[in-house]
Specification:
47% helix, 7-stranded parallel β-sheet, alpha/beta, single chain
Amino acid sequence: MNRLDGKVALVTGGARGIGRAICEAYMAEGAKVAIADLLAEEAETLAAELGPNAMALALDVTDLPAISAAVARVEAAWGQIDILVNNAGIFTMASIEEITLEEYRRQYDINVAGTLFMIQAVVPGMKARGNGGAIINFSSQAGRRGEPNISLYCSTKAAVISITQSLALELAGDRIRVNAIAPGVIDTPMWEVVDGLFARYENKAVGQKKREVGEAVPLGYMGHPEDVAEPCVFLASEESRYITAQTLNVDGGNWMS
């Protein structure tokens, strides 16, 4: 359909899982895509598969000089960044007795500061070109509610919703739309880690939690990365031109708002 024809997108955490599906969907809609990830080799492999309109960027979203360099490289190569997807993030579990300052800083540095400073890096170019832009941040259903032993992760994802709302209002006059997606349980490689953590904290067999959360979804199954990528196309396209400051739940009915 080429809904993103002529657009340039930068996707963090783009090498695998939801990020990979977004990169593939954007390419299918006509965009050029910069795949930014700590997993540099996987990003390079994906870029090679997608062709000349894809580039790989080795990027740590906690490294501000690296963020600036990545944005400058994309703008030098393709002249612009129209779409930013802040998908990079981490998940860990810890009871209140186990939380450390180091882990607190790590989760906030990646999930919150990474989102904020990626936006800071792309906004000047978007403003200078005067054509607006689309920024899509990744929250989670965990940002909508508390969950035991996940206070750090839940609070970082709630912060992403708040950042989305504030920056949407701040940037509206420049026609830069800022929205977020709050996925539910999505079947990605990350869920192997999540399942293992729940096995420890809830004394479950490996694989049990993953099966249970899928069965508990009102639609009856875990989502797939493509289920998130398509709404991400919509929020980047002109079809959503009158939508900003919103967080879209993509969770099979787990949360109602």
